[in-house]
Structures are given as structure tokens and as C-alpha cells.
Amino acid sequence: MLREDAKEWLNKLTAEEKRAITKYTFNGKDPDGLRLFEKINGYLDGYYKPVNSKEEKTLLKYAGLIEKGLLRYNLQRDIIVYRKDFYTSALEKPIDKFLSTSISTKGVLTGKPNIAIIVPKGTNGGYVELLSQEKFKRQREFLFNTDLELEKLKEDGLYIVKRK
């Protein structure tokens, strides 16, 4: 179902938005050892300082294109997504960066997920599998847009939250 919704969404995206999301989901490292998504999220979260103004402009451009593209996605049903995170308490404050999750417990990159997020219909984010490079499609990624707020429901082996 999400894959079908994503096909409709792709038709609404500009070529630049598609390219930005694809580059974001690619896990290759830059010469400095960081991945694009780490730089964008670090910059948005205030802990990454671009090496120069050119890099800062690039990060702002990609972040803007991704944000704009995700705004075009229309989540048509409630879903549950998963994530592995070492700092679960960080999810209890407003999230000003993009947040990667998987619609499958097997799609979490760093092992078994410790977080489940209940995502209501209409949430601002997008199922980006169709824009991911081939070797990353198995992640089955749902990418939350910036300005996300979550509410902790319980913590009993699996940290369960829902979007506010």
C-alpha cells in the first residue's frame, strides 16, 4: 500500500526534490568521513558546522528540497515504524531534523529496533523506498519531515511513542 502511495507521490515531485531525497538516503561517506544525512541533520540540530559557506549553502539547499518534497506526501493510513536509537530521551523533545525509520523491523540498519513509533494518517513524512538506491531499498524507509514532536507512551523493552 505504501509503495503504491509513493508512486503517486513521485509524480508530484520535481527532479531536484527527487535527487535531494535520493542523495539523502544514500549512505556513502564524504571525504571527511560523514554521510550527507549526518551533515544535514547535524546542521539542522545545531551540532555540525559546515566547513565553508559553499557547504552550508549546499546543506540548506538539500534540506529545503527534502522538506518541500516530503510536504507533498500524503500518508493515507495509520502505520507503525521502527528505529534503533541509543538516545531515546532525545525523542521526548521537538525534533528539528529529518528522522529515518523503517516500516519493517528487519529494515533497521543497526540491528534490532528499540523504538516503535505510531504514525497517524496525515503525518508529515514520506515513504522513500522508491527513491533509495538499489542496495538501500531493503531499509523500507519512512522519512519524517522536520519539526516532529513525539509523545512517549511506554518503555517496556520497546520504547513506544506516537506523533503528537
UniProtKB/TrEMBL annotation:
Task: List, alphabetically, the InterPro entries matched.
Answer: ADP-ribosyltransferase
Domain (ADP ribosyltransferase) ranges:
4-85
State the GO CC annotations. extracellular region
Q: Name one Pfam family in it.
A: ADPrib_exo_Tox
What name appears for this protein in its UniProt entry? Answer: ADP ribosyltransferase domain-containing protein
The scientific name of the source species is Aerococcus tenax
